[in-house]
Amino acid sequence: MSLRLFDTGTQSVRDFVPLVEGEVGVYLCGATVQSPPHVGHVRSAVAFDVLVRWLRRSGARVTMVRNVTDIDDKILAKAAAAGRPWWAWALQNERAFASAYAALGVLPPDYEPRATGHVPAMLELMDRLVERGHAYAAGPGDVYFDVRSWAEYGALTNQRVDDMTDVPEDAGSGKRDPHDFALWKAPKPGEPGTAAWQTRYGRGRPGWHLECSAMAHRYLGESFDIHGGGLDLRFPHHENEQAQSRAAGYGFARYWLHNGWVTQGGAKMSKSLGNGLLVTTVLEKAPAVVVRYALTAVQYRSMLEWTDDTLAEAAATWDRLAGFVQRATERVGTASDDEVAGVELPAAFAAALDDDLNVPAALAVVHETLRAGNSALAAGDDAAARAAMVTLRGMLDVLGLDPGSAQWRTAGGDGRHAHALDALVRAELDARSAARAARDWATADAIRDRLTAAGVVVEDSPTGARWTLAAPTPAHDTSED
């Protein structure tokens, strides 16, 4: 592979060399299902979806694991406030995340383990750490990782323990050191009895960090290629994962990748700050493919500032891409999925994605191909137009944005609606054509004005009139968190 990735563990761009040639194991920290997803939550899934698609397009056999944290302090608290069983609350939100991923065209992971389904694996890992002297019981149900027992603690984020200002959660009185973190947590007063498991250390439930180490080991082995997640997970979550896994004697992740945040007004989008845009709310304003384009178009490590113009700009670009594919298909016929999947991609596009998934540079190549394709259509060069269309679809397929794919063929809408709309507009265009033939310019202009007022753009060409929907105009966002 010629892929190079920015490893946040070494703070450098490294050649990506898989542990096993031709195979890649990826573990992505998934959702803690305390609430429905907002746009900031799904950015990570979309970013790593592009990575997986590119690895597979490059010939690698990828095993993708994305976990679900379905037990957590916040889940228990929010479920109690809502008067719901914690497990029902977690499942409701897990399904909301699954719906959001599917709507945005995120490929399903090969494995999607839930924390509550892997308690035995967590207990095995915890026992191993205790036996090796890296963890200790601090009271009935409480077990902590001893950070000072592991000399490399802080290596992922390049920190010394004594310099760390952020003390992890779980400030229990039985800690030997304030930086020690919980592997196992005793039930708190008022928590439901179903949210605890009996162990030789007492009843309790897993700490957040222990979950991911146990599940990554279960599905990817002692060492694997890539561990990913949002930038905010580097510390303490990923630092703690690495420490406990390596203290247990495992190699764990060889490359660490972290995506940037979605921000509003420069602040990280989050429920706690009151600036979250629920995915369901956003999808009421724009087709899912437009939302996906907005999330994909920025390089994954960059911050994505979400403004009133974000969706409008993405919609305008999507309309140009999808419009060309539609016009070319009408002229030269469709391309099969196998043809799109097998087309040779431009060297500059491949080089851009091999350069730490530089999607903006890759999209520059997409737009060069778009311009060439439009020129070929205008010149009547069907062979060149078809070649450009297939190549453009091939590139966009890698980004999960192929306008000719089954998911996006109707821009994420209901195909019945698109068919009905097309039939109605075609009837209007036929009436306009008849009026023009009869030199009834007033009627022809009135029909065009009526379509324009309805948001339909009419384009006259030598082969007849065709129509598209006008790009949406930006509107001030008044949605609630």
Description:
The chain is an alpha/beta fold and 481 residues long. It folds into three domains: 4-259, Rossmann fold, CATH 3.40.50.620; 274-399, no CATH class; 416-469, no CATH class. Helix content is 44%, strand content 15%. It is built from 15 helices and 15 strands. The protein has helices spanning 39-57, 73-82, 86-103, 119-131, 208-220, 234-247, 279-282, 288-296, 310-332, 337-342, 347-354, 359-379, 382-398, 415-437, 441-453, and strands at residues 4-7, 12-15, 23-28, 61-66, 135-139, 142-145, 181-185, 205-206, 223-230, 252-259, 262-264, 267-268, 304-305, 456-461, 464-469. It has a four-stranded parallel sheet with strand order 4-3-9-10, with helices on both faces. Strands 5-6-7-8 form a four-stranded antiparallel sheet. A three-stranded mixed sheet has the order 12-11-13. A hairpin with a 2-residue loop joins strand 11 (262-264) and strand 12 (267-268). Helix 8 (288-296) crosses helix 9 (310-332), helix 9 (310-332) packs across helix 12 (359-379) and helix 12 runs antiparallel to helix 13 (382-398). The protein is elongated and about 90 Å long. The model is unreliable at 412-417 and 474-481 (pLDDT under 50).
